[in-house]
Specification:
The protein is mainly alpha-helical and about 450 residues long. It contains 19 helices and no strands. Helix 4 crosses helix 16 and helix 5 packs antiparallel against helix 13.
């Protein structure tokens, strides 16, 4: 439920409309399926490592042990930065959503209130975070199940009018509007929508019986997420034409034109916009809650390993890394405040730098798992001793690596093919890449680290 809560959000409830508009219903389904394959291999790779070595904030530690401490340093700080900025993004989004009901209240009031809520859920105990994420996720799952049920009834003409049949799927250039380049163009958006599933690995050290429950959770997560996303796209594709101009909007303020809202309205639900507004608010709070958790745990691990200031190692009586939570909350709020000045230019740069971070973290997982398995066998260990063995090795991590690299370098590929190359657009889109390389190469030069030999890889489970 933590992974579902951290993954399902505005990427499905809002961005799905523009994805269908750009690539057509068939192209959207294809993009989600390809991204789903990438996520499947990434999550099974993570499951193999997290089940055998269940530690909190696992990414940077695994990478440091099995690839290179410098890469672990870069992956850890990259993931922290990504989550700290996501906290700021969700604070900004929550203030915009509340304007739907109370337009006269300044947005910063809501942002401060919701930051206090997210901070409180994270600082008290890990149980508070887990319990809140469970209920946030329940709301999302219930909404999607109701949407799918209503949609299927409408497709077969049981609710409100005759069935449209395959008309919207075959209209004009549909189902694949724009061909392969449109699918590639939305693949990055789709991949971003799936980000959050890796929270299972972050939470491994604080979960009950991780050797049994982590693999079980990850296997269930993949199929449920894929079904939720793909079935929702198919239902929308049947009921709304890809060229409907209302699908173009991805703005958090335009709840009234969410594909989910449009389908519910067509089904006769007069309060569709208000209900979806409430659902999307819970999605935003859930994403902010998860980001605060992920940021604090990775920061705590970095401090324990000497890769962050030592004061961040402090744990309170509830077992929560308090100073890491304080620090992440302060940075998140500071990043949010940049959206209020200079027309949000600084904020836009921060968000673009964070845009690549999720894919860089995933790239770290696939590379690390490849080295993990090689080192495991090189040290004479038996696969049957692993609590969970991921399938399709080495194809799985290799394919995931290729798809992650495609997503990273394809962030703004169109800027290279314009009549005059858009250097500003390229700089804004790829700013996260030189920051990551700077962290990696800087640590490597200062600490003089080397790639960890397979025979010396550390499999300590403490």
């Amino acid at each position: 439920m933590i992974a579902i809560g951290g993954t399902i959000g505005t990427g499905l409830f809002l961005a799905s409309g523009s994805i269908i508009h750009t690539a057509g219903p068939g192209g959207a389904v294809a993009a989600y399926l390809v991204a789903g394959v990438m996520v499947y291999f990434l999550m099974t790779s993570l499951a193999e490592m997290a089940a055998f070595i269940p530690i909190t904030g696992s990414f940077s530690t695994y990478t440091s042990r099995f690839v290179d401490p410098a890469l672990g340093f870069a992956i850890g700080w990259n993931y922290w930065y990504n989550n700290a900025i996501v906290v700021a993004l969700e604070l900004a989004a929550s203030s915009l959503i509340m304007k739907y009901w109370l337009p006269g209240v300044p947005g910063i009031v809501w942002s401060a209130l919701f930051l206090a809520l997210i901070f409180g859920l994270n600082i008290l105990s890990v149980k508070g975070y887990g319990e809140s994420e469970f209920w946030f996720a329940i709301i999302k799952v219930a909404t999607i199940i109701i949407f799918l049920a209503v949609g299927v009834l409408m497709i077969f003409g049981i609710m409100h009018g005759n069935s449209a049949g395959f008309e919207n799927f075959t209209k004009g250039p549909a189902p694949f509007n724009g061909g392969i380049f449109s699918i590639l163009g939305v693949f990055m958006v789709v991949g971003f929508a799936f980000q959050g599933t890796e929270l299972v690995g972050i939470a491994a050290g604080e979960s009950e019986n991780p050797k049994k429950n982590i693999p079980k959770a990850i296997k269930q997560i993949f199929w449920r997420l894929l079904l939720f996303y793909v079935l929702a796209i198919i239902v929308i594709g049947f009921l709304i034409s890809y060229d409907d101009p209302r699908l173009l909007s991805t703005d958090i303020q335009d709840i009234a034109v969410s594909p989910f809202t449009l389908v519910f309205k067509n089904a006769g639900f007069a309060m569709a916009a208000s209900v979806m507004n409430a659902v999307i608010l819970t999605s935003v709070l859930s994403a902010g809650n998860s980001a605060m958790y992920g940021a604090s745990r990775v920061l705590w691990v970095l401090a324990k390993e000497g890769k962050a200031p030592s004061f961040l190692k402090k744990v309170n009586a509830g077992g929560v890394p308090a100073n890491a939570v304080y620090f992440s909350a302060i940075i998140g709020m500071a990043a949010f405040l940049t959206s209020l000045f200079g027309e949000g230019t600084v904020y836009t740069w921060l968000l673009n730098a964070a845009g690549l971070s999720g894919f860089l973290s995933w790239l770290g997982i696939s590379i690390t798992h490849y080295r993990f398995r090689k080192a495991y066998l090189a040290q004479g260990r038996a696969l049957h001793d692993l609590p969970y063995v991921s399938k399709w090795f080495p194809l799985g991590p290799i394919l995931a690596t290729v798809l992650c690299l495609t997503a990273i370098f394809g962030q703004n590929y169109a800027a290279f093919f314009e009549t005059q190359i858009d250097w500003y657009g390229i700089l804004v889109s790829y700013i996260g890449l030189p920051l990551f390389l700077l962290a990696f190469l800087g640590y490597k030069m200062i600490k003089k680290t080397k790639m960890v030999p397979l025979q010396k890889a550390d499999f300590n489970q403490d």
